[in-house]
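In keeping with the milestone schedule agreed at the kick-off meeting, the structural modelling team has produced records for the first pair of proteins. Each record is given below as a sequence line and a structure-token line. The laboratory manager (R.T.) confirmed that both were archived under the project's standard naming scheme.
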Amino acid sequence: MARLSLGALLLVAGTTVLSAQLATAWLDRPLAGWNQPGGNVPASRIASDSEATLERRCSAPKTASTGAVDAIRKARWVPYLHTDQAIASNDIEVIGGMTGATAGCEPLYFNLFVFAAGKFAGTVSPAMMAPTRDGAAGAVRITGPDTLTVEFARFMPGDAECCPSSRVRVSYRINRSSAGPALVPTEISQIR
């Protein structure tokens, strides 16, 4: 077993804390877009052998469009149905992509990818999420031909790891242009 020095442990712990802070900091600032028209699905950091193992163990959603699933796989994410359901209406489709899963194939590290008319529009979060952590996506609703909302867990001081006492809702608009669609956050509101 490899041993880490105290300095290395502090660096790893500090990096973990910093990563967690960066993952949710966007929810605490004025909203700014991170998705660009005509962008590609961002590449995951999963090793190819880990991706293949995860893909074999937790098969891809059967109800998602082939183009969206292929785009997520090409970027080395393993596709899954967020909250175990297909999220699609009109020409908007939301599909989860994970890089780790529990024994029961629940995602451990994930993001949600939005497609409009079969083209990648963006991610709902600028950073990867983890369940039971601050900023994890919950309910997703397609609210119109170019709009959707996503609820995110917010943990308050004293909350148990299982149970965030607060939630925020982020509203998004899909800007469609000749360069391609781009998912843009437009409003954030505390709902609990």
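The second protein of the pair:
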Amino acid sequence: MIFVTVGSAGYDNLIKKIDGLVKDGKITEEVVCQISDGSYIPQNCKYFRLAPSITDYIKRASLVICHGGVTIFEVLRKGKRLIGVFNPNNVFRQQGPFLEKLSKEGFLLFCRDIDELYEYIISKVPLKPYHNNNRELIKSLKAFIDKG
């Protein structure tokens, strides 16, 4: 199962793209989308708006596709293959650099252009396992925040 999550803000372009890939037969496995307050309703995937927890979806997933929010750490801790997709409409503009950093470290694939998402989905690029190192994470996040 592929799990797609947009967090607490809608990301219609991501959901439309995934829905189109399923419709076109490029994605054949089950897809579940968490769409939040998005206005686009998937026609070819299962979906829900919000849930008290998405942990069970993450556990079941062979691949998780998400925005650049805190969900990333839950996915990485569970050892799931992850594609981070930057949402240019999100008010938290730091998601792009955050995804870039985690991608450079080899923990996830960073899809900068939604039109290239399918190539990331079929990619066999190996990813490094994530080990929660709170001291390094806090240092890295502090430096990131300090940069503005």
